[in-house]
Structures are given as C-alpha cells and as structure tokens.
Amino acid sequence: MPYKEPSQVLYTLLQNIVEEGRRFAATADMKVSDMSSQAPVGTTLALLERQLKVMTAVQARVHFALKQELKLLKNIIRDYTDPDYTYDPEYGNRKAKKADYDLVDIIPVSDPNAATMSQRVVQYQAVIQMAQMAPDIYDLPQLHRNMLNVLGIKDADKLVPLPDDQKPRDPVTENMNVLKGEPVKAFVHQDHESHIKVHTSAMQDPIIMQLVGQNPKAPQIQAAMMAHIAEHVGFAYRQKIEQQLGMALPPEDEKLPPQVEIALSQMMAQAAQQVLQQSQAKQAQQQAQQQSQDPMIQMQQQDLQLRQKELELKEKKMALDAAAQADKLDIERERMTGTLELNSMKVGAQIQESKAKSAAQQERDGVRMGIDIAKQKAQQDLQVKQASLKHIAAFKQNNKGQPPK
User: Fold this and answer.
1) Burial class of residue 209 in the structure, from the number of CB atoms within 10 Å of its CB (0-12 exposed, 13-18 middle, 19+ buried)
2) In three state form, how does the secondary structure of the chain look?
3) Average pLDDT estimate for 370-388
4) Confidence of residue 368 (pLDDT cuts 50, 70, 90)
C-alpha cells in the first residue's frame, strides 16, 4: 500500500484529542475496583460521580425527555379517549376521568442521579453509615429493605418485613408478634380500646414480664409494645374526635387546602375540648373505683368513717349538752319569771291591800266625820229648837198666851 505509517504528529494529535475529551467530560482515570476496601464511602462515591458525570448528564436529559413524552401521552388520552372510566373507581364516579387527568402528572419513576447499581449501592452504604451514628432518627427496616431492592434480592419483604406489609391482626396475635420481635401495625378500623386493654394486660402479667426480663432484647420488646400501644391510642383519639364532629376525618397523607385545614382545625379544637372533659370525668371515675378497691385506701376510708362517727357523736353530745343547758336556762328563766310574777302579785296584793285599807280608813274617817257632823247638826238643831222654845215661851209669857204671828 502506498501509504506511510502514522507519524509522530498524528500520534501527538490523537493524544491531545483524548486529553481534551477527558478534560471536557471531567472523568477520572482511577478505577473503583483498584481502590482499597478500607477507603471511605464518601471518597468512593465522589469518584463514581466524577466518572459517571457525562453519563449522568445524558440520563438526566433522557429522563426529562421521557417526562415530556409522558405528558403529551396524558394529554392525548384525556382529549381523545372516552371521557368516562370503563370501571367504577374507588373514589368518585366514572365521569371524573377528565378532572383526574387535569390534576395528575405522569412522570418516570427512574432516578436520574443514579446511573448504575453500584452508584446506588454506594449511596445506600453512605446512608447506613450515617444511620449507625444516630439510629433513633432513621427507619432502619425501610433502609435495609431499599438496599435489598437495589441489590435485586428476591423476597425482600420476607427477609425484612415492614409494618406497611402487615395485615390487621387480633390483639393476642399482635402480642405474640411483639414478643417474637416481628413488626406490628394498628389500623384505623380496629377496636382500639379492646386492643389497648389486651396489650396493657399482657404487660402487667407477672409471668410474661418475668420471661421478657430474662430476654436480652427486653428493652426492644418493651419499646415495640409501647410504640404499638401509642399507635392504638392515637387511632382511638382520632375516633373520639370523629364522634364529636359527627364526620370522618380526611386521610393522614391527604393534602388539604388552607381554608379547609383552618376550618377543620377550629372544629377539632372544640371537639378536642369535649373529648378532654369526657376523659377527665372517666379518669376521675376510674380513680375513685381504684381507690375503693385499694386495701390501704379502704383502711383510710374506714378510719375516716370512724372519725366521722366520733365527730358525729361529739356533735350529738354537744347538741344534747346544749339542749340540757338550754332547758336549764329555760327552767331558770321560768323560775325567775314565776318569782317575778309572784313578787309582782305580792306587790299588787300589797298595793290592793294598802288601797283597801286606805279606802276603809277613809270610809271610817268619812263615817266618823259624818257622825260628828250629824252630832254637831243635831246639837245645833237642838240648840236652835231649844232657843225657839225658849223664845216661844218668853213670847207667851210676854203676850200672855197669845200665839206669835
């Protein structure tokens, strides 16, 4: 062939093109497989992102393009298909199809930021390392389940069961699952009061508590039981609020408009106050029943009853003493009143007697005076008569027997 081999200039040009391409793509020459197994997860993840920077950009653009395509398909289905559903939807009616498509966006479920499985695995490893530093704020079962799904492990739901996978169980089965360390979940339609009673009875059972105390996982079992009881308590409180409102509350994950949320909150405030009053009355009744069954309380009540009886006896004795004293005072008052009346009668009698004596004396004095006056008058009349007789006699003597004119 009449052609020369590649010259040094062409080789240098090839190297320059490769270098410029690497600089443009910002890829790293180092391979992850060549790194040490002790390398930090963050370093490995940074290298992966650097190597896959171009691929990630391409995938992000493909993801955006697919989103636009699905949006066009949604509009076509909304505008050019039957306006009604061909089945009865769970919520609403068949004619809600167009309105549903107006409110819903159809988007891809892929993650444009994770191009390969190895990158997603490294990301979950980083999250798991962070969760080990603060396990209380992470949902570890959900994290491990996602890790198994990324790795492509089959039957991940059996290896790491989650509460969302659970079905409604009776309270005894829930107690058994908690003792075995299996997840449990409460559902809104259950009889939460009955579940709470069964769970609290199991926690108060001395035999069960003795066996649980010997289990090295006793704190986890008790924490799981308390969390499950708290879940039932929350649903029971929700049911009480619904009973007071006379209506069902919206689902927990439903997004409410601000006006609806404000109006519903005001109604809930009134219902919560009524529920609080009912709970306080019920608690007071239960406390009274418990106190009536407590031996110490019963002894104290008996002591109080004895003291009450003693106090009543003392009050009765004081009342009798007061009545006797009052009777004594009444008798003394009556005696004094009788004495006063007797003295008054005596004084009256004495006054009457004095008056009678005065009247009799006055009468006697009057009689005497009358007698004296009569005597004096008789004497005067006698004297006048005698004087008249003397005068007549003198006249006769002077006139010699002729009567006076």
Assistant:
1) middle
2) CCCCCCCHHHHHHHHHHHHHHHHHHCCCCCCHHHCCCCCCHHHHHHHHHHHCHHHHHHHHHHHHHHHHHHHHHHHHHHHHCCCCCCCCCCCCCHHHHHHHHHHCCCCCCCCCCCCCHHHHHHHHHHHHHHHHHCHHHCCHHHHHHHHHHHHCCCCHHHHCCCHHHCCCCCHHHHHHHHHCCCCCCCCCCCCHHHHHHHHHHHHHCHHHHHHHHCCCCHHHHHHHHHHHHHHHHHHHHHHHHHHHHCCCCCCCCCCCCHHHHHHHHHHHHHHHHHHHHHHHHHHHHHHHHHHHHCHHHHHHHHHHHHHHHHHHHHHHHHHHHHHHHHHHHHHHHHHHHHHHHHHHHHHHHHHHHHHHHHHHHHHHHHHHHHHHHHHHHHHHHHHHHHHHHHHHHHHHHHHCCCCCC
3) 76
4) confident
Listed by start position, the domains of the chain span 166-252
- The pTM of the full predicted model, rounded to 2 decimals, is 0.47
pLDDT tens profile 101-128: 888 888 888 777 665 677 777 778 888 8
pLDDT class for 323, splitting at 50, 70, 90? confident
- pLDDT tens digits, 237-246: 888 888 888 8
Tell the residue number behind the tokens 């180092």, with chain if given: 30
Distance (Å, whole) CA 355 – CA 361 = 10
